Amino acid sequence: MVTSVLQRAEDGSTFSIIVNADDYGYSEGVSRGILDLARKGIVTATGVLANSPFFDEHMRSLLSVPQVDIGVHLNLTTGRPLTARLASLLVPSGGEFHSKKYGLALSILSGSIAKNVVEEEWDAQIRRCLEAGLRLWFLNSHEHLHMLPPLYSMIRRLAERHGIPYIRHTRAEWFGSPTKESLVRNSMLQILDWVNRGGSRLTAPCLLGASQSGKLDLKYLETRLATLRRGQVYELMCHPGLSIAGEEVDPRLYAYHDWEGELNALLCAEKLGFFGVRRIGFRDLGSLGKPLTGADEAISR
Question: How many CB atoms lie within 10 A of CB 177?
Fold first, then answer.
């Protein structure tokens, strides 16, 4: 039983891991890949893109796997916003989000897009998921934009408002062979981690996968999972998916995402026993009746 796994994590005899797939609703292939791994018991949580044009159809499928914990993958960089007020500020891009995260980040930080407009949009994305009958366990964001200090306080406020227990605290992961892109990303995340934590002790799962975001492979899983500390709880961020014949996907995305590669890596890791019996969900974190503690803290609200 999951509770016994958590008890062993508490007494230090093993570690526990939440396998959390981002981007549910991004495309038919992504959603189907996540559902396939969820039904096999490999993926234990997934974050929903609430502004997906496929939202209604894909939510019906997601509700068929009640064992998977669901959160909102708050979005400001892909597709169209749900709120008219934010769409009206995106006229130069045809009412759609900027394709590059840095463009929107600069707009928020400069004040050309007010924080209350962003909060209204993110609130609408959360409400859309709740109205679809989803039980929400966590919040995170596409491209980790919630780690920007003005948005970090906002996501905490939204979690409190809607009774959502956990927030992903993305941190730099200095692991493996860094690329130029990963060095830039990790440096930014390191700074944002320091700013947002403010030196306080934080509780919730420690995030894995940031150094291989979009291209998680078997080598990473084998070497990284071997470093995990007994008695700790972790969240593995992943982006599995399938190729669907005839589905239109922006070719530029393949430079960053290897959806099928990640799906196959997770399947192989399961076959080779890398995960064992130690997978849990966010719903299991509270069964201990106290916050998780230890050297590898992340954050809950």
Answer: 7
Give me the residue spans of the domains in the chain: 2-288
Q: Which residues contact 277 (CB under 8 A, 6 or more apart)?
A: 5
All residues at 6 or more sequence positions from 121 whose CB lies less than 8 Å from its CB, including other chains: 76, 81, 82, 83, 85, 86
Tokens at residue 171, please? 């941190």
What are the structure tokens assigned to 79, written together? 């597709």
- pLDDT score, position 253: 65
- What CATH code would you report for 2-288? 3.20.20.370
Tally helices (H) and strands (E) across the chain. 10, 7
Helix 149-162 to helix 115-131 angle, to the nearest 10 degrees? 30
pLDDT band at 203; cut points 50, 70, 90? low
**Residue 120: strand, helix, or coil:** helix
pLDDT score of 195 = 76
What the block records as the tokens of 195 is 């700013």
Distance CA 73, CA 110 (A): 24
- Mode of pairing for the β-strands spanning 16-24 and 166-167: unpaired
Structure-token pair, residue 209: 């996968």
pLDDT the model gives residue 127: 98
Q: How far apart are the first and last CA of the chain?
A: 27
Position of tokens 């970090």?
Answer: 152
